[in-house]
Amino acid sequence: MIKLNINGQLTTLDVSEDMPLLWALRDVAKLTGSKYGCGKGICGACTVHIDGQAMRSCITPMSYAKDKTITTIEGLSEKGDHPVQQAWQTLNVAQCGYCQTGQIMSASALLANNASPTDDDINNAMAGNICRCGTYPRIRAAIKLAAKSTNNSNGETS
Amino acid sequence: MIKKVSRRKFLQGTGLASGTLVLGVQFAPVFAANHEPMSFSPDVFVSMDETGQVTIISHRSEMGQGILSTLPLLVADEMEADWQRVTVKQAIGDAKYGSQNTDGSRSVRKNYTKLKEAGAIMRTLIQQAAANVWAVPIDQVRIENHQAIYQNQTIDFKNLVKIASTLEVPARESLKLKTEAEQKYIGKPGMKNLDAHEVVTGQAKFGYDIEIPGMKTAVIARPPVVFGQVKSFDASETLKVPGVVKVIEMPALTPPAAFKMLGGIAVIADNTWAAIKGREALKIEWDHGSNASYNTKDHEAVFIQALENPKEVVRNRGDVEAAKKDASKHLEAEYHVAGLAHATMEPPAATARINGDRVEVWACTQTPQAAQGNVMATLEIPKEKAANVEINVTLLGGGFGRKSKPDYVAEAAYLANESKFPVKVLWTREDEIKHGYYHSPSYQKLSGSLDVDNKVTSWYHAMVNHPIGATFDPAAKLAGSTDLGQGDMMFDVPNIKIALGETDTFMRIGWVRSVTNINNVFAASSFADELAHLAGQDPKDFLLQMIGSDRIEDFAADDFKYSNYGESPEQYPAETSRLKNVIQVAADKAGWGQELPEGTGMGIAAWRSFLSYIAVVVKVSTDGNKVKIEDIHMAVDAGKILNPDRVKSQMEGSAIFGTSLAFYGEITAKDGAIEQGNFDSYQMSRINQIPEIHTHIIKSDAVPTGVGEPGLPPFAPAFCNAIFAANGVRHRRLPLKNLTLV
């Protein structure tokens, strides 16, 4: 039995310590928004926030996730209206959509640490997330749009 | 004729409010006993219930091209439905919808008219129903945004459902389709993806995400070499892994591979991790079979020999050899493109549940009907019981042709049947890369002659690859396909020879996005650029000159049996004017001809594929072995455009797919087994390597054509032509192993 906080809820999962967090989330907690893409931490489809940091859940064993605070795409916002989620819809970013939850988790972690990222900042933060359909230019634009809308609503100039 | 119904009868009808009007776009509707009352079948695309809610069936698979958000526009627009009152429903696999095979970039062109007609039938019936209510001629009733309007009166669609459902379905020939000016959704920018909110909140369901009660998860250890077999295995350690419930030996694969299961040992477990760990614990001795003799590296010599001795000339005009003798300048070049894997972000996945003689499947499939047929063949279910096999289509996390090959669906059905559990088969990334249906490695030889005026007088293009045909017929040796990027070249050259070589095949070969256009157009468009430089002319101007006069290309005149993507040349002619136009537009928008800094260059390529005309201009800067893509412009003429934003996204995706294959795409076999296995050994381009991509859509009244694939073929050659322009180095082999993309 491993205890951890998932999306604000204290949760106990009956899984082995070596099970990657990704499979615990998907198969046991039934949260399938985090995706499998490579199992090696090189594509980013499985990205979640662990204690606020964007991390690859496919290579994070439950022994590490134990007692930590996990945010998955399902818990990023209550109504699915995080500025990044909104910007993604405004710019019709997704094609197949499979990698996008991981992209959004990486993007939201970036913006939490850097309110006005430059193109280079975005490229550095997002280079670990593969999109095979080819949505990279729109991802860049959507992150900038999300930053702008957040900064505007905070009364700052963008 | 549409029956008139009295106003009194109409009012009675609406009072009951129980009707559902379901229309098919084919006539002779057949009542199906197991459907809701008043449902019609087959060919059912649109229905409306008594609340006025319209349901439109999307019978093609959504894999990122936006078809779920695009095809229904045709119906909704034509029937003047309020988009807010439309529900789009994914069809199960059923022959009543016609072909559901979502590949070949043809969903729009194959369904454009029939879906518009479905909408028009609904509109006409609503209009007639309203006319009957008001007792006025039908042409005095206007239909707009879910309302029938007569003078200052309106009736909502919901109040016309019942009466409309009693009317005779109008004949297709009698329908009046909307003019372009009357369209509300079709061709308009800013249409939102229907599944956007589900995608960004993690609620969208892909094949990998299916969960049904009592389900187990399976992964399979497949033979490393195609047609290899299990000699012996020991599952004792596997069965000790907590969560593993069963180990099942799969039937061995025999030729032809087709869509059959690959064989191997399946591990069935309570969760994915247990299945993966259980598979790792298997001890298997393989008989690798005869394909173990295949080494990609060694086969190069076989390919080259086949290339030098082509077996079949498929297009011939004039005398290429004579032209060479008379030439002022002559050039020969050989090109190579490596084997490629699909690498869909979501690897193949399928779930099956068997209950008595009923089989239910949930799968990310591009072709639910082929999946249905494959399940029936695997479980030996007779044809007449097709209705017992239900294929539910999930969202697809990418397709690119991989998911039109339903071998994985057969695996799920087989394991559900053998284990007596509902089973979800998941392919890991390694499974996907190592056990694919690959784009074949290819070798190509081109030669061309110039006369004293630097006009091209001959064009020779020979190609050899492992043919896709060998996957279905082991005797197939002749390379394919000339129709895709080789024989279909539209250069006005007096002497042409297009030839194919033959060779054996040692792995499963399949179609990957744009198929042999990838290698053929790379070679042909690179060679066109080489000839331009040989002639000392601007590559864009030279390309326009080679294409020549405005005309419809007559391939048949050269005894070339060109399939034209299965369409008639009358309806979908190959028009040189349209090809030249996209070249000019892409060049103009990119600022072609401007002075560029040292080490920077632009390259151009253009081709007609999937009946669409695409030109690409790429700008790169180089620094030693480092290459940076500075800018990409794409011009696309795909006839009438339904959803401009999704056309743009397909062009963006094609350029990025092209970048990956140009830089990294290389599948190789050693002793018959694929050497690559994940995104470390089979890399993809990343966000930091991709600049802005500008798409320029040509406004056209021509019949709509494809956009999923045709953006890809011209990208790699435009890119390599740009590198040549930047630093004078010509690259004839993909991937570009000695360069670093920054």
* Poorly predicted spans of chain B: 1-43
* Greatest contact between two chains: A-B, 58 and 62 residues
Shape of chain A: globular
Name of the CATH class of the largest domain in chain A: Alpha Beta
Summed up, the helix count of chain A is: 6
Q: Give the termini distance of chain B in whole angstroms.
A: 66 Å
What is the chain-wise order of helices and strands of chain A?
Answer: EEHEEHEHHHH
CATH fold description of the largest domain in chain A: Ubiquitin-like (UB roll)
Query: CATH homologous superfamily name of the largest domain in chain B?
Result: Aldehyde oxidase/xanthine dehydrogenase, molybdopterin binding domain
- General form of chain B: globular
**Helical content class of chain A:** 25-40%
Query: What is the correct CATH architecture of the largest domain in chain A?
Result: Roll
Unreliable spans of chain A are: none
| Largest sheet: spatial strand order of chain B | 12-13-10-20-17-18-19
Q: Please tally the helical runs of chain B, counting DSSP H or I stretches of 4 or more residues.
A: 18
Largest sheet of chain B: 7 strands, mixed
The CATH class of the largest domain in chain B is Alpha Beta
Report the portion of residues of chain B in β strands: 15-25%
Radius of gyration of chain B: 28 Å
Question: How does this model look, in words?
Answer:
- The complex is a heterodimer of chains A (158) and B (742).
- Chain A has 158 residues and is of the alpha+beta class.
- Chain A has helices spanning 21-28, 62-65, 83-90, 100-113, 119-126, 136-153; strands spanning 2-6, 9-13, 47-50, 53-56, 69-71.
- In chain A, 38% of the residues lie in helices and 13% in strands.
- In chain A, a hairpin with a 2-residue loop joins strand 1 (2-6) and strand 2.
- The model of chain A has no long low-confidence stretch (mean pLDDT 96).
- Chain B is α+β, with helices and mostly antiparallel strands and 742 residues long.
- Chain B folds into three domains: 2-198, 2-Layer Sandwich (Aldehyde Oxidoreductase, domain 4), CATH 3.30.365; 214-290 and 348-426, Aldehyde Oxidoreductase, domain 4 (2-Layer Sandwich); 296-341 and 437-741, 2-Layer Sandwich (Aldehyde Oxidoreductase, domain 4).
- Chain B has 18 helices and 31 strands.
- In chain B, the strands form eight sheets. A seven-stranded mixed sheet of chain B has the order 12-13-10-20-17-18-19, with helices on both faces. Chain B has a six-stranded mixed sheet with strand order 15-23-22-21-16-30, sandwiched between helices.
- In chain B, helix 2 (67-78) packs parallel to helix 3, helix 14 (517-535) runs parallel beside helix 18 and helix 15 (539-547) packs antiparallel against helix 16 (576-590).
- Chain B is globular.
- Chains A and B meet through helix 1, helix 3, helix 4, helix 5 and helix 6 of A and helix 5, helix 7 and helix 17 of B.
- Chain B: One of its GO terms (molecular function) is oxidoreductase activity.
- Chain B: It holds the Pfam family MoCoBD_2.
- Chain B: Residues 201-290 form the Aldehyde oxidase/xanthine dehydrogenase a/b hammerhead domain.
